[in-house]
Amino acid sequence: MKILVVADEECKYFWDFYQSGRLDGYDLILSCGDLKAEYLTFLVTMSHAPVLYVHGNHDGDYERRPPEGCVCVEDRILNMGGLKILGLGGSPLYSGGPHQYTERQMRRRINRLRFKLHMTGGVDIVLTHAPVRGYGDGDDLAHMGFEAFLPLLDKYKPRYLIHGHVHMSYGADLPRIYQYGETTILNGCERYVLDLPEYEASGFLMPSRW
User: Which CATH class is domain 2-195?
Assistant: First the structure.
């Protein structure tokens, strides 16, 4: 399964300067938020791959005009060809805008998913907008990561936590990848390609009921 991860900045290669065929070969697209709805609609149309997304802190317009043909995975677990994906979008609370959460609120969201996590035996990918506290986040309030993600990683040990929110341009030496125990933490800013050949891409257009 070849996965295109996108977040925060519309990729000019796929958007402004798109040429036919550039989205061929991707089996799944994951959006970590803060992207134009039109961009996600374009990706799902031109690639013919399912697009799953979580909200970023600047995605308030999605409530009125969500990305067409895409699937919101917020507070859900979807099984895509055996790849189990949990969505937890939003950023830390810093201005009172939409899709912002306190640590307590994020913990509550995770706690409400405990039964589903138990029934599915955990997940392979946690798709977020905000990073994990201390792993690729910022020191300012708006870009701090969530400490609430740490117990989730400790208990269920997903293969990946994929986030956005922190733009790679914020620092020339900012790493894209961190390792926390058995979980690889990946910053999906603009675009990143994840190849998981052990997962079957065919026949997963309809997500599971979770």
Answer: alpha beta
Whole-angstrom distance, CA of residue 109 vs CA of residue 104: 9
Reading the block at residue 146, the tokens are 């969530």
SS3 assignment, position 6: strand
Tokens of 8: 């925060």
Which residues have CB under 8 Å from 124's CB, separation 6+? 83, 84, 85, 158, 159, 160
What Rg do the C-alpha atoms of the chain give, in angstroms? 16
Q: Which pTM was predicted? A: 0.94
Identify the segments of the chain with pLDDT beneath 70.
171-172, 202-210
Per-residue model confidence as pLDDT tens digits over 153-202: 999 999 999 999 998 877 657 899 999 999 999 999 999 999 999 887 76
**C-alpha–C-alpha distance, residues 8 and 176, integer Å:** 14
Domain ranges of the chain: 2-195
SS3 37: helix
Dist CA 97 CA 164 (whole Å): 18
